[in-house]
Amino acid sequence: MPTESPTAELGAIASGFLLPATDGRTHTPDSLKGANGLVIVFMCNHCPYVKAALPNLIRDARALKAIGVNMAGINSNDASVYTDDAFDRMIALAKEWSLPFPYLHDETQEVARSYGAVCTPECFGFDRDLRLKYRGRIDASRKEALPEARRELFEAMRAIAEDGEAPGEQLPALGCSIKWKP
To answer: Can you give the residue range of the structural domain that contains 50?
Structure first.
């Protein structure tokens, strides 16, 4: 049964973190943000919704980077139960897909909890001051990619980069629930 993200309190400041990534570095929101913003995508390796979304997510990450908006993926799943989400498998996925963004490991799940993340893939879009302006989905894709789907995340972040505001309508993310530790 898929999980849907709740509505967001827009304007909130990004919660701080210090997380290891598949690129061998440790990152914070400040180290990740671009000149015009940051997208944080809660994602994982095993979720069929993430697998279907990866081509569109990668396309949008590259296009956003060109306008000064960086992206980062965060995996918060319990890898002791979902072994495909272990850090070594995250490294393999990042390499296999040539991810154009850092893929971070939230082993304690504290970051997912601080953001209120509930599903994968779930997108949090921040402006240049790291204020939340978008929370929702990449596009209408589900367990199958829709290459021609309207690029909701990209369009929202382009608007945020240009004038600081996202479109009024933000549709919730839908995907696998985050796999919480007991």
So the answer is: 20-163
Q: Residue 180: inside a domain, yes or no?
A: no
Split at pLDDT 50, 70, 90, the class of 105 is very high
The reply to whether 142 falls in a domain is: yes
Q: Over range 65-83, report the average pLDDT.
A: 97
Mean pLDDT of 108-127: 97
Domain harbouring 147, CATH code: 3.40.30.10
Does residue 54 sit within a domain?
yes
Q: Whose CA is closest to 159, among 138, 131, 136, 134?
A: 134
127 neighbors 166 (Cβ within 8 angstroms): no
Q: pLDDT digits over 30-67, tens only?
A: 999 999 999 999 999 999 999 999 999 999 999 999 99
170 domain-assigned:
no
Three-class DSSP category at 137: coil
Order of strands across the sheet with 119-120? 3-4, 174-177, 119-120
Averaged pLDDT score across all residues of the chain? 95
C-beta atoms surrounding 31 within 10 Å:
12
CB 36 within 8 A of CB 128: yes
